[in-house]
Every structure is written in C-alpha cells, then in structure tokens.
Amino acid sequence: MDPEATPTDERKLSLTDRAYALIRKDIVICVLEPGMFFTEAELSERLKMSKTPIREALLRLQVERMVSAIPRRGYEVTPLHVADIQDVFEHRRIIEGACAELAAIRIEPGDIEELRTYADMTAAHYDAIDGSDREAVSRHAHLNNVFHETIARTARNHRLHRTAVQAIRDYDRFFFLEWNAPAAYAPDYVDHHEILMHIVNRDPESAKLAMYKHVDFSRKSLLTGLAATGNASLLNRVRL
Predict the structure, then answer these.
(1) Which pTM was predicted?
(2) Domain 81-239: which CATH class?
(3) What whole-number distance in Å separates Cα of residue 138 and Cα of residue 19?
(4) If you classify domain 15-78 with CATH, what class do you get?
(5) Among residues 155, 39, 44, which one has the least CA distance to residue 106?
(6) Do residues 151 and 103 make contact, with C-beta atoms less than 8 angstroms apart?
(7) Average confidence (pLDDT) per 10 residues, the chain, 240 residues
(8) Which segments of the chain are extended strands (E)?
(9) Quick count: other Cβ atoms within 10 Å of Cβ 130?
(10) Residue spans per domain, the chain
C-alpha cells in the first residue's frame, strides 16, 4: 500500500472508482452527515460527474451499508447508533489483536522498516494536523489505516487480512467523530510505536495486549467525547 496515496487519489481511477472514493470520504468526514437525504442529481452537480458513475458508486456503498436507497426520496446516509460503536470496536479488538499476535511471530526483516515508516508518518502528521481541517483529518485517518492494514498483512493469513481490512474500514465513520472529541482524544501514535516495539521484539502476547489497549483507548475516547458537555454536535450524529 502506498502511504502517499489518498482515498481520493485520482491516478488510475475509473470514474466509478473516483465517485465512490469521493462520496465515501464525504460520508466519513460528515460532509454528508448520518441520516442526511440526498439525490443522484445533487451529487452529480456537486462532483461534476454524470449520473452513471454516481449510481454505480452508490450501489457499492449500499453493499457496505453506508447508504440506503429510499423510494421517491433518493438516498439516506446510514445513521450511526451507539450500538454500532460497541460492535465495531469489539470486532476490531478481536481481529486486530490476532493480527498483531501473528505479526510478531511471522514478521520478516523487510516488514520492520515498512511498519516503522508508517508509524513515524502517522506521528509526524499528527503533530502538523489542524483538527478543524476535514481534509487533514481524512489524510490522518488514511495513514492510520495504512499502519493497521500493514500489520494485518504482516500476519500472513489472507483470510484474516481480508477480515481485518473490513474491520478497520468499518471504523472510518467514527474516526472523524473521535477526532472532534478533543477533551477525550490523545495521540494514538504512541500506541502505534508500542505495538510496533512488541512486534519487532517477536513478543506475540505483548503485541496482542498492546493492540487491545490501543483499540480500547480509541473506544473510550469516542464514548467519552460523545458524553462530554459541549459535544452536542457529536451526539446529534449518533442515535441511541
């Protein structure tokens, strides 16, 4: 995976792929907010594309349960529920813990520098990020995914990797909300380096526990942020 590529990198993308990436990003960073209704015509005008790639992209997003087709109204961005938070983080904890454990057993010399590069890039980007810049937050989310998906690939189990990628991307919609809970949020790249240290040291149990800690902290940050005074705008995006 190219860490310099972004979810909306236009190089070598078909119109449908480009439409999919742009619409998905708008959902993730809440330009299209949970529960919002929209039409193909509105997206076509805003993205300067014909309706055909828009329609094909929306079919893919329906499969991912990010949007739903609503008769005579167009589409609805799938609402977020508090129960979704529990489901997503429980899934990530189990799957990514197993990935970290296997990565510590199966890591090869070439993997170490790759993982270290991604961990360092995440750290550097966090230091420079402006949290009010949605594009910057989207970029940070992408770098975060690159690190986690590389650990999953290092586990060298194709089925586990495929499941992990889906679990990681299911979290995308919560990343922006977590980032906008400043009272609860702290730099997750500290955990990235801790996870990496245990993987490089070939300590599978410690790597698994570090990943558990990382995922648990992220869940706690999001839930605390949603409950915090002054974060009503976040609560409005998540249903009980």
Answers:
(1) 0.83
(2) mainly alpha
(3) 16
(4) mainly alpha
(5) 155
(6) yes
(7) 54 84 92 94 95 96 95 93 90 98 97 95 78 80 94 98 95 81 52 94 97 90 70 58
(8) 37-38, 67-70, 74-77, 80-81, 238-239
(9) 9
(10) 15-78, 81-239
